[in-house]
Amino acid sequence: MQTQQPDNQKNLLIAIVLSIVVLLGWQLLFGPPMPQPQQAESPAPTETVPTPGAAPEAPGMASSATPGVAPTREAALALSPRVTIDTPSVRGSIALKGGRIDDLVLKRYRETVDPNSPNIILLSPAEGPKAYFAEYGWVAPSGSSVALPGKDTVWQVESGTTLTPSTPVTLVWDNGQGLTFRRTISIDDNYMFKVVDLVENKSGADVTLYPYARLHREGTPHVQGFYILHEGLIGVLGENGLEEITYSDALKQGGGATVNNAVGGWLGITDKYWAATLIPNQKVAYNARMMGLPANGGQPESYQTDYLLPATVIPAGGQSQTEGMLFAGAREVGTVQSYADTYGIKQFDLLIDWGWFYFITKPLYYLINWFYGLLGNFGLAILAVTVVVKALFFPLANKSYESMAKMKKLQPEMERIRDRYKDDRMRQQQELMALYQKEKINPLAGCLPILIQIPVFFALYKVLFVSIDMRHAPFFGWIKDLSAPDPTSIFNLFGLLPFSVPEFLHIGAWPIIMGITMWLQMQLNPQQPDPMQQKIFNWMPVLFTFLLAAFPAGLVIYWAWNNVLSLAQQWLIMKRQGVEVPIGANLKRNFAPILRLVSRKAK
Questions:
Q1: DSSP 568-592
Q2: For 434-476, what is each residue's pLDDT tens digit?
């Protein structure tokens, strides 16, 4: 970037400062919209859908955990007989006590890059720590004495010994009053459960029941997304559109959300990479709730999403059936989109948080994924995408660099104008503008290469942060996870010295490479006439090196590679314009004191 006109220098300096502010404020700029959860007004009760707050409603926030009974997850699992779950993607079990899906481990994902580290645990039983489970059931109208299965009900296995994609499991329970409840659970190769509940009535009288489903979670998980990624309660509730409620907001008074008579959609709880969502029948009206309960009486804070279906009348001698789905697994882009298309789930693709600038972020993800299919490495895919982006903006950048080269060539003439009219600022500006017009130069064109790079920079950051494909994706050498910062540090000589470095001093090899390429690129710009401005320019690569050290390694690699391509492009244009490339001279000038010292020592 260059311009020697004082006013334009100030504009350029402002642009640089703003760019730095943007880098520091990335959370605010590219975070998803955070709608303030509001309690929806309850419409008048209907004959088909009960009004939340009136009887009946889905079970509330109270869990079935008994403090001190099961201090470990393994002990909690042993408190109930179980049916095993085993698929290519998950393993776990269904608790016959309560008929809950409360034990789920993701086979393909581990806690760290170490291949021997534990697999990710998604769902856990209510009686243990960090309870997180899905529950299906029925509630009866107020005043009804019908016995219904609850959290302590022990179901019997009617068919199936292990839940697999090819073998569903059917559970059965008889209430002793003429009602037989059957629950058939099936699962696909990935993360979608289907739950079919059938009630057979041999009591001799009609029975009215309200089916429900709920997700219950105890304790607040570690939140990684801050403002750039939503974590917490989430759902698309009919025509109300996307609801996003953070864990902290859900615990506030009135911080939840209630929607009545919604048709279509889904609701659940999401973390950075994992999610569990309830998916009701997309053509049946339902009442939905999303809420939190602060810690109380020794119990941790808890969160719940649930839906209540319309009243189901089971005629005497007849039966009634309802069904719903449960997504519980990794937020893989292709898998989520496939479910949205296959099952017609309303806006289920919004489970992936692409942010406000999805029109840049989403295509960029698909482009990176396409190159990954060709190259087999996400780091190489990022390098290839950088080339594509440079090619797309080549005409604009080319014009900018040509203008900069012409500006540098005219540097002596510009200095003469300033000296000639140094006491007449107005005339100086007029003469400089006349010179720009004569030579067809845009003095602000040098800002364009950085300005057009910023949207791509943040879009790539979003992709690296959101996409589970990038999680634990290696590059080469020491980069084992492109979504994490460079793990090395110059302060222990990149691991050669036997001591660890505080996190704020983790200035890795790739950030340093990025800083060096940025410094080299800036050497192609002329010296600023204002010494203070030149000092700011000189320190910019150092500042950006520290800023980007904490960013994902994939992003730093992108910036460094982009700098290299820009260097080559700008160097070629300057040579074509007959302008001296100043890198060698600048290197000699900046390192002259060091060279002189080394020379004296050698003598």
A1: HHHHHHHHHTTPPP-HHHHHHHHHH
A2: 777 776 666 555 556 666 667 777 787 888 888 898 889 999 8
- C-alpha dist (Å) from residue 262 to 337, 349, 522: 22, 18, 57
Which of 321, 314, 319 minimizes the C-alpha distance to 141? 314
Alpha-carbon distances, residue 540 vs 208, 534, 548 (angstroms): 71, 10, 12
Average pLDDT, the chain: 81
H or E stretch including 242?
Answer: strand 242-246
What sign does the dihedral 309-310-316-318 (CA atoms) show? negative
Rg, Å, the chain Cα set:
31
- Look up the pTM and report it: 0.79
Task: Reduce the DSSP state of residue 257 to 3 states and report it.
Answer: strand
Residue in 309, 100, 325 with CA at minimum distance from that of residue 217 = 100
- Candidates 210, 270, 260; CA nearest to 239 is 260
User: Which residue has 């440079």 as its token pair?
Assistant: 390
pLDDT in tens, 509-524: 899 998 898 888 777 7
Pairwise CA distance, residues 498 & 551, whole Å: 25
3-state DSSP call for residue 433?
helix
**Helix/strand/coil (H/E/C) assignment for every residue in 189-221:** CCCEEEEEEEEEECCCCCEEEEEEEEEEEECCC
- The Cα–Cα gap between 268 and 236 comes to 9
Give which of 309, 231, 242, 234 is closest to 267, Cα–Cα. 234
Q: How far apart are CA 270 and CA 65, in angstroms?
A: 22
Q: Of 80, 216, 79, nearest to 156 (Cα)?
A: 80
- Report d(CA 260, CA 180) in Å as an integer: 30
3-state SS assignment for residue 407: helix
C-alpha triplet 248, 249, 252: angle, nearest 5°: 100
Q: Please state the φ and ψ torsions of residue 406, each to the nearest 5 degrees.
A: -65, -40
| The CATH number of domain 32-40+72-354, selected from 3.40.50.740, 3.40.630.10, 2.70.98.90, 3.90.180.10 | 2.70.98.90
CA-CA distance, 359 to 373, in Å (whole number)?
Answer: 22
Question: What single-letter amino acid sits at 237?
Answer: L
Q: Measured on CA atoms in the order 412, 414, 417, 422, is the torsion positive or negative? A: negative
Taking the domains of the chain in order of start, what are their residue ranges? 6-26+362-602, 32-40+72-354
Q: Which DSSP letter does residue 178 get?
A: S
What is the arithmetic mean of pLDDT over 85-109? 96
- Burial letters 256-272, b for 16+ CB under 10 A, else e: bbbbbbbebbbbbbbbb
